[in-house]
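Why do we bother with a discrete structure alphabet at all? Because it lets us treat a fold like text: something you can write down, compare, and reason about line by line. To make this less abstract, here is a complete entry for Sensor domain CHASE3-containing protein. Read it the way you would read a sentence in a foreign language you are learning: slowly, and without expecting to understand everything at once.
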Amino acid sequence: MMAKLADLRIGNKLLLAFALLILGFGAMLVFSLERFVRLQQADAEDFTRRYERVAETKDLLINILGQRIALQSALDGDEGDYLMEIQRSSERSARLLARLRSTLSGDPEVAMLVDKLEEQRSVFAHTRDTQVLPLIRSGNREEARRLFGGIQNERVDTIAVLGEQLTELTALGVRQGLEQAQQALAVQRLQQLQLGLLLAGLAGVFAWWLSRHIAQPLMRLTGWAERISGGDIPTDMSSSSRQDEVGRLSQAFTRMGLYLQELAGKAERLAQGQLHEDIQAVSERDVLGRAFATMVRNLRELVQEMNEGITVLAGSSEEILAATSQVASSTQETATAISEIATTVE
């Protein structure tokens, strides 16, 4: 995997790095927004449910108190209209209790209060319908008033106390829900910070990897180029097997170093007089190789001409030496003849 990454072009590496960073931060943003939206929806649903519970509880208490007032009015006056109102209120209280039970969310303490509330309302309604109202209809108002002012009032007070407890418990749940929401937001902020640090760490690791695979090899190649520009041909150049721009540049530098070393060796051998070695250009664009080949060819021709001239000079010298020997012999003979003539004259 790392070898494949190393072989990618530098532009692709940078593009991949930026893409990973953008995707990472984008994923973190999407994750954070999704968590925030879910948390907000859960808080809104919980608040709505608790608010409806408080509202239903208040409506139920008002309804029960309204029934007590209607019963008191029925005891004091014409029961006709009040009895119909009591009937409607009783049906409404039953619906309110059903809606109140639908707002329960697995809270056992709230469910227990609702059960007690429903039990008290049921007993209150049963006593009202089976005892108080028949007594009112039969005209036995004193007995109805005694029953209503005793146990029924106690049940209404109990319902009111239970309703207040349910309201307070729901308000406590709202406060706890807000605290939990704040804690969840704090946890989410911590998670975002951790994800941000993780992405920053990954970005740092990737930057280090890019520096190690791009900057450091380029610095090494720069050092080789500076040495070559000063006439020092490095002998320790090693190429990389990577296939990106830096790898190919390193391979090209290695080939150039080997080429210069080969030319330097040939130049040294030429300086020692070894003109028999053939020098071939690496390619048609090898200006230096062609120049070297031309120089060697010209040197060979020059040496050949010099050798021919030396051969001619050697031949001429032999002829001159032979002529000189003949002249010397003739001179000796002339001298001998002159001596003989002189002797004869005497």
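What the structure line is telling us, in plain words: Helices lie at 2-7, 10-76, 79-102, 108-137, 141-229, 245-271, 287-345. The chain has a mean pLDDT of 72.
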